[in-house]
Amino acid sequence: MRWRAMTESGELKPDPAQAAAAARLDALAQVLSGWQPRKTTGGWMARFAFGRSSTEPVDAPTGLYLYGPVGRGKSMLMDLFFDAAEVERKRRVHFHEFMQETHGLVHWARSEKVGGVTPIERAAGLIAKQVSLLCFDEMEVRDIADAMILARLFTALFDKGVVVVATSNRPPDDLYKGGLHRDRFLPFIELLKDRVDVIDLGDGTDYRLDRLIGEPIFLTPNNATARAGLDRLFAELTGGAEVEAETVVVHGRELEVTHAVKGVARFSFTELCAQPLGPGDFLALARRYRALVVDDIPRMTDAIRDQARRFMMLVDALYERRSSLICSAEAEPDRLYAGSDWGFEFDRTASRLMEMRSADYFAEPHRP
Q: Top-level CATH class of 2-200?
């Protein structure tokens, strides 16, 4: 097993939860070696229906669903499994990208009607012709359009023998939590739990943040060097993944996050502190994201007292939820506030900013 070899060589640190997950993935890779779903029967009519079969559902190996906080090594384990799986037709894809492609297939199928086959069944048939192993990175359901088709889509995929391995930050029961018409989504959760074994990677070491121990994460002053440093740290935390726009719901309101990926969000100071945001907004961000990267924190005076107050609330929320702050600022924490209105209160903020740079703080688990 490659994971064990990497641990023995010192490339990876020993981690019991990772070891258990790696063993389960290795066992599945061995089962899949040489396995192929049973060929569809039913003659030319079934072939014309693009995958509609007269056979019973294929008895495929049980897939796996790995979940845990950001930085627990889920994507790394998925990569090792994908490379080891000797499956001719396999694909590793971000779940969001897969769903975008699927909506395109369903739209096409609606325009190219075939009697007796629904557009979703036809889309699933086309997917099953291309892959027998689907590896999804970051399964997360936020879009109602995705939620409404998943049960029918995956019923068809599983029936056609497609094996699914997925990673997620959430356990299956928390997918689409709080979403519109979630009752219609619940059959997908039950289907998923029936067709994959769920593995909890736990709240152990966040290896992405672990890499930042010893790195300068409070960069001063605000200049091109600091911006380049934040770019590098953001890429390090997110594995260079493409950023996406996300929405965080706060008491029924939608808070737009324009740059987010893999549990990390990036903002400018102005986006967070020059807007009418309050403690509930900052707490929602701290719960949602394991780390915030914030550009261009100025030296605050009484001329921007409201912005200084919001910054203090932001730091309190991040500290409470053990979310990390990586930022560029005009001055060190003890010299970041030059006003008089919040002098006493900002002393606590400065103290917390200093603590949030420590290895002990990084070692504490995020509190969603």
A: alpha beta
Residue 146 confidence (pLDDT) above 60: yes
CATH of 207-363, one of 3.30.43, 1.10.260, 3.40.50, 3.20.20: 3.40.50
HSE-up of residue 199 (Cα within 13 Å, Cβ side): 26
Residue 46 banded pLDDT, cuts 50, 70, 90: very low
Hey, what amino acid is at 193? Answer: K
Mean predicted confidence (pLDDT) in 341-358: 89
pTM of the model: 0.62
295: pLDDT strictly greater than 60? yes
**Per-residue tokens: 122:** 């036809």
Q: Helices (DSSP H) in the chain: which residue ranges?
A: 2-8, 16-32, 43-48, 74-84, 95-111, 119-130, 144-159, 186-195, 207-210, 224-238, 269-273, 279-288, 305-320, 343-355, 359-363
Burial class (CB in 10 A: 0-12, 13-18, 19+), 180: exposed
59 or 190, greater pLDDT:
190
